[in-house]
């Protein structure tokens, strides 16, 4: 038997019909609903718990979906999903064929704009607001809800700068909880703290940029939020509301340990305790191989610098930040700045490891080309989360790096096939390369327990024969090599396996040998099929008039949604089963 009000809400229309008394009990119910499901199914937790009252108030006051509501990043939108017709499907969140973990236009008319990467909401909402103006629609409101870490990004500033000289119906709500995934950084954070504490000496920045400024207001005071939003709804032009919230609100552990409860994995829904992690005898996560190796290298070499744009925990640069706080920098959500900062330091002979998730490096493409590669500055890019990342889905897969980097002159591109390879290429890179290098590795754990072996340099541009074979050669790049090895076992000596390692410079000597000895080649990569290893091998084979068959396996030319990595490898046709099927066909 259902009690309470949440089960009566199929859409914001139902929400708007609630009495004030009923509305009062909704935040606790919504929090409990989210906690119960995320505890079991996993996902982002803290951000959604922090905006429960704001979510209710927004849908109560604004006429969504006619009024456009955009959640920046979107990891805080679970309450929004549940109140907008997705309560009963919420337990499929982030599962294959289930709800996306982020707002998505194709999923609901209430998801005004697809998100996942941060700091896009102001530009998108402004675009919609200006479109309404052009259409003569003076009534519609456009709301961007953006966090304190996301608003510090360049893109958000570009949007603010433009919005301030328009009279567009735009409401920017700054959800200020003083933390991103890790604690927020930078001068803006300091300014916002001063505003909250009433000690800001400067003119209000947002008023100075021509916004009608309101706040700061307690984001957990629902009646207050309802009152202020009702006022704001009637005001035309650009408006700015500064809301103060607590990430993880309503779950004691999540409030106390906001970094860990950003996306805590499974936990006990009643006590809030995290499930014990049994990582004792597991191979390390690649991020930790990076994190521990850079510390080891930095101990021996004072010129080594580490840079992360807002992902100290996710990249494990936090280990270096603890030991060498002056040489390990979190620059906030600022991928473009991170790359050019690294270039500036490399120009001054610093050895810079710039660690960025593959998908977020897309933001800094011009900086890689113009500021790093064109000047041939030996920045060491470490691209974490390369390949298919799983439940975060299409916005977060590192599907494109091999292709988007492959066409850049001067750049060395390497994908280790295991943790030892990652460790050794990091060592090799800091010995001094004459070029920038991009090292890409996946989310999750490798397969080697004993990885902290003495460093050995890796010869640049040299691939490896893992095993010679009969008629078919598999040429692999990166950790997907394990799938190739697994697939080949059943075929014995018929199949040779090669770990090419470097996409650039390509080991053409090794390719010449392969062309001489084999009738058929399978290339395998966990990146898009267009422009990566398969394309490079295919181009070279064409140039050398290779007469055999080449089968290219990689992520197909479409966006891959969310699911477990195993499911997605299968979908993309790069699982060991898929490789095995291709081997069978070629051997017929
Ligand atoms: C371009 C980009 N870089 C990095 C990330 C990873 N990321 C996701 S959420 C987040 C922190 C967001 O913090 P904030 O805007 O304060 O929102 P909160 O989590 O506090 O709600 C980061 C760095 C991202 N999604 N997009
Ligand atoms: C919302 C967001 O972009 C991040 O929280 C992302 O989900 C982190 O992914 P990892 O779990 O791979 O660090
Ligand atoms: Mg925040």
Bound ligands, each once: thiamine diphosphate, 1-deoxy-D-xylulose-5-phosphate, magnesium ion
Strand tally is 17
Gyration radius, in Å: 25 Å
Task: Tell me the distance between the termini.
Answer: 60 Å
Number of structurally distinct domains = 3
Number of distinct helices:
24
Q: Output the CATH topology of the largest domain.
A: Rossmann fold
Helical content (DSSP H or I, runs of 4+): 25-40%
Task: Summarize the structure in words.
This protein has 588 residues and is α/β, with parallel strands linked by helices. It has three domains: 6-256, 3-Layer(aba) Sandwich (Rossmann fold), CATH 3.40.50; 286-440, Rossmann fold, CATH 3.40.50.970; 464-587, Rossmann fold. The chain is 38% helix and 15% strand. The chain has 24 helices and 17 strands. The strands form three sheets. It has a seven-stranded mixed beta sheet, sandwiched between helices. Strands 1-2-3-5-4 form a five-stranded parallel beta sheet, sandwiched between helices. A five-stranded mixed beta sheet has the order 12-14-13-16-17, with helices on both faces. Helix 4 (52-61) packs parallel to helix 10 (222-233) and helix 12 (286-300) packs parallel to helix 19. The radius of gyration is 25 Å and the shape is globular. The N and C termini lie far apart (60 Å). The model has no long low-confidence stretch (mean pLDDT 97). Thiamine diphosphate binds at residues 47, 73, 75-76, 117-118, 147-150, 175, 177, 179-181, 247, 310, 333, 335, 360, 363.
